[in-house]
């Protein structure tokens, strides 16, 4: 128990036989339950966890997915266990020991004290992150974080892909975990759903840990095109759900009008360039129309972003 709140730590695990013991053994004593969710590992991860489960006197629990669901689906299974068991706070710590247990109190404090509904780690907070985090992961995370700021409405949140998080019971009971994105885009999906429900989110600096024997097939830069499409869909979902269905705000018109004008300006600009190269000269004012559409469109989008920031300023 931490500051009067029961704490469960969800540990998603897939082929983590090398480091899962370190994760369990270094877990702080104030953690009430350690819920390891195995995503159909092909190594000895389950056997190792079962040994801890047998001797941990009800503190360690092993859940096993009946089929591989990805990290998002695995975390959702652990969240549902914590929700159904009545825990006050659920934390996510990966099974590859890349999340420092010493950072856990700082992550728990805003949630346990009622200052936030959801706290997430930010590995990019210090300048040392550039030296520690592999370059492709750092740059990929930076791009995805920028896109997620726009899509989620949490403009103060960075390092969107960090999975070191803490969430309170109210949010656990509100979010529909069965609809959560089940793969690498789960953190982006969750932030959007939290914003739709007006939950307060806080960034907490955490120490990045790499080079301890962890393995990952995820390449954030390569994931950008696929996740960009997911984030775009989440963005539209949030605008419709939050600013049309649940409440109304004119920023929806600004966003969609701006997008229409920018796309129209780009299309007309391509037409002007193609005509000039393939056919001949154009009227002096024709290119200015394309510039007018682009400039006006970007102004609309920037106004919409400003409105969005103002609307969500209290959710931090």
Kindly describe this structure:
The chain has a seven-stranded mixed sheet with strand order 3-2-1-4-6-5-7, sandwiched between helices. The protein has eleven helices and seven strands. The longest helix is centred in the C-terminal third of the chain and has 28 residues, at 251-278. The chain is elongated, with a radius of gyration of 23 Å. α6 runs parallel beside α9, α8 runs parallel beside α9 (220-245) and α10 (251-278) packs antiparallel against α11 (286-311). It starts with 6 loop residues before the first strand and ends in a 5-residue tail after the last helix. It is α/β, with parallel strands linked by helices.
Could you tell me the mean pLDDT? 90
CATH class value of the largest domain:
Alpha Beta
Strand order of the largest sheet: 3-2-1-4-6-5-7
Helical/strand content category: alpha/beta
Radius of gyration: 23 Å
CATH topology-level name of the largest domain: Spore Coat Polysaccharide Biosynthesis Protein SpsA, Chain A
Low-confidence stretches: none
Gap between N and C termini: 25 Å
* CATH homologous superfamily annotation of the largest domain: Spore Coat Polysaccharide Biosynthesis Protein SpsA, Chain A
Provide the CATH architecture of the largest domain.
Alpha-Beta Complex
Question: What series of H and E elements makes up the topology?
Answer: EHEHEHEHEHHEHHEHHH
Give the amount of beta strand, in percent: 5-15%
Shape: elongated
Number of helices: 11
Helix content: 40-55%
Write down the domain tally: 2
Number of strands: 7
Q: What does the main sheet amount to?
A: 7 strands, mixed
């Amino acid at each position: 128990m931490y500051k009067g709140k029961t704490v469960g730590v969800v540990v998603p695990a897939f082929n983590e036989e090398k480091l899962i013991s370190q994760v369990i053994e270094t877990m702080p004593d104030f953690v009430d339950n350690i819920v390891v969710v195995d995503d159909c590992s092909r190594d000895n991860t389950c056997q190792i966890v079962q040994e801890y489960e047998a001797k941990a006197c009800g503190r360690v629990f092993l859940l096993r997915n009946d089929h591989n669901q990805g990290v998002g689906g695995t975390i959702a299974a652990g969240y549902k266990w914590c929700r159904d068991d009545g825990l006050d706070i659920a934390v996510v710590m990966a099974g590859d020991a890349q999340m420092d247990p010493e950072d856990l109190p700082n992550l728990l404090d805003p949630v346990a004290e009622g200052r936030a509904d959801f706290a997430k780690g930010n590995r990019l907070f210090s300048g040392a992150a550039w030296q520690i985090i592999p370059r492709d992961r750092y740059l990929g995370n930076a791009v995805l974080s920028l896109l997620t700021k726009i899509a989620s409405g949490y403009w103060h949140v960075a390092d969107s892909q960090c999975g070191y998080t803490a969430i309170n019971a109210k949010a656990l009971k509100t979010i529909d975990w069965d609809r959560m994105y089940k793969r690498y885009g789960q953190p982006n999906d969750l932030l959007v759903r939290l914003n739709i429900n007006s939950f307060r989110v806080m960034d907490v600096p955490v120490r990045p840990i790499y080079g301890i024997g962890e393995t990952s097939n995820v390449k954030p830069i390569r994931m950008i095109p696929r996740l960009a499409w997911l984030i775009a869909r989440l963005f539209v979902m949030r605008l419709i759900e939050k600013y049309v269905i649940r409440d109304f705000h004119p920023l929806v018109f600004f966003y969609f009008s701006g997008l229409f004008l920018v796309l129209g300006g780009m299309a007309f600009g391509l037409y002007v360039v193609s005509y000039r190269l393939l056919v001949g000269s154009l009227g002096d004012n024709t290119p200015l129309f394309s510039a007018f559409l682009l400039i006006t469109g970007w102004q609309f989008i920037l106004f919409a972003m400003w409105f969005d920031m103002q609307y969500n300023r209290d959710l931090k």
